[in-house]
Amino acid sequence: MTPATATERDDHHIVEALNLLRSRICDTGFIFKDSPDGNYSKLKFMISSSVAEACNNSILLLGPRGSGKLAVLDLVLQDLLIQYPDSISVVRLSGLLHCDDISAFKEIARQLCMEHQLLFSKAASFDDNSQFMVAVLKECGLAHKSVIFILDEFDLFAQGKQRLLYSLLDAMQSVSSQAVVVGISCRLDADQLLEKRVRSRFSHRKLLFLPPSIEDSQRLLAHMLTLPIDSSLPSDYAVQFNKKVQNIIEDKKFKEVFTNYLNFDSSIKHLLRFLFYAVSQMDLQTGFLSRENFETAYSSIQRQPKLECLRNCSILELYILVCMKRLEVKEKSLCNFNAVMKEYKNIHDSFQTSDYYARNVCLRAFEHLIHRELICFTDNRGHSLSVEFRPVKLLISSAELYQGLKAYHSCPAILLKLVERDG
User: Average pLDDT over the chain, rounded to whole?
Assistant: First the structure.
């Protein structure tokens, strides 16, 4: 066998560096475990102390979508399941799937049966499943085992009679039970949605997840793209690579591109997507990143399917989307057609717009937006209800809506003003 040539060795460490950067971007542990004062450390302390001290706890993780709530929680659970392999069981529910009490208790019973190798009965009643959950929590408490309930889309569980939340938190008042409830919501006022009887049993511990500032995003970018000097990579290549990355970060044109991207969407989720695009554009011949890689990534990400849908919307459909966004800003993210029509009339009365349509025309436009998947129903319980009464939510962000309105050739100026003011 012939020894590898210098060129082959260069190609090898360039590919190795590229794979390292890609794996980092996909590794939530590398992203979120860095700061000792971060939410990862705080959440791990809260849950681990509850498990170690055999006490009950309830925590809310609040913040916009893409800010890392679920990623951090999953990291904490991975670590705790290794640390306490026989002392933890996890039950996961989603408000999008289990927000009605019957299906929620049935899913809890199903997961607890799987965890403890028991026979699950699909025919069990609501009361049977509720009593079974309380009994299992007591048994787990006696066995010094904690059950961690993950309630994703927590605000959806706070609708209606809140029997699930009350039953869970009430069962945790018993000294014989041992459980932790972790709620996840993009509504910062999620705890204010709780009934008095539920709120009195809640621990009122909250962790806030916010999109990083421009400075924090730049630090995260440098952290992700800096190659280790003491690794299998040639040290002179790593030093040169890191120097070029630092030069890019300090470049004026790069800062403009980066700021524009963050103005479009500053969430960690989309920042990592942006970095992955840029790293994938790296020139394998030179083995270094360039400013052009980030510019290409920015132009690629700018193409959004929802923006394409907005270009084909009617003026009336744009009004409906803006009305829903205004209701969302007013912390009424769950609304129905009737609420949208009330907001639509308020805009017309306040600004005397000429774009005012009959209710039946608005309903057809509303249904068209559902078909285009720009809005959607929030539950699967209301099939017997009229479309006008079923709760819906937006599937488009404020940044996407604003960008779509700006690109719309005949968008009424009042809509842009309303979105700018509310944003």
Answer: 87
Q: Answer yes or no: are the C-beta atoms of 260 and 298 closer than 8 Å.
A: yes
Side-chain half-sphere CA neighbours of 160 within 13 A: 17
> Tokens 């299906």 label which residue?
103
Q: What is the pLDDT of residue 389?
A: 85
* Distance from C-alpha of 257 to C-alpha of 217, rounded to nearest angstrom: 13
Burial of 236 (0-12, 13-18, 19+ CB in 10 A): exposed
Q: Could you give the angle at which helices 6-26 and 268-280 cross, rounded to 10 degrees? A: 170
Distance CA 76, CA 74 (A): 5
Which residue shows structure tokens 């630092």? 246
* CA gap 325, 316 in Å, rounded: 14
The answer to whether 62 touches 207, Cβ cutoff 8 Å, is yes
Task: With beta carbons less than 8 A apart as the criterion, state whether 41 and 265 touch.
Answer: no
The full DSSP string for 89-106 is EEEEEEHHHH-SHHHHHH
Task: Return all residues near 170 (Cβ < 8 A) that are at least 6 apart.
Answer: 201
| Mean pLDDT, range 401-415, rounded to an integer | 86
Average pLDDT over residues 297-310: 76
Going 390 to 92 to 60 to 66, the CA torsion angle's sign is negative
List, in sequence order, the alpha helices (H) in 152-290: 154-157, 163-171, 196-199, 214-225, 235-250, 252-264, 268-280
User: What is the mean predicted confidence (pLDDT) over 28-51?
Assistant: 87
Confidence (pTM): 0.70
Closest-CA residue to 15 (of 284, 405, 362): 284
- Asked whether the predicted pLDDT for residue 174 surpasses 60, the reply is yes
Query: What tokens appear for 46 in the block?
Result: 């809260």
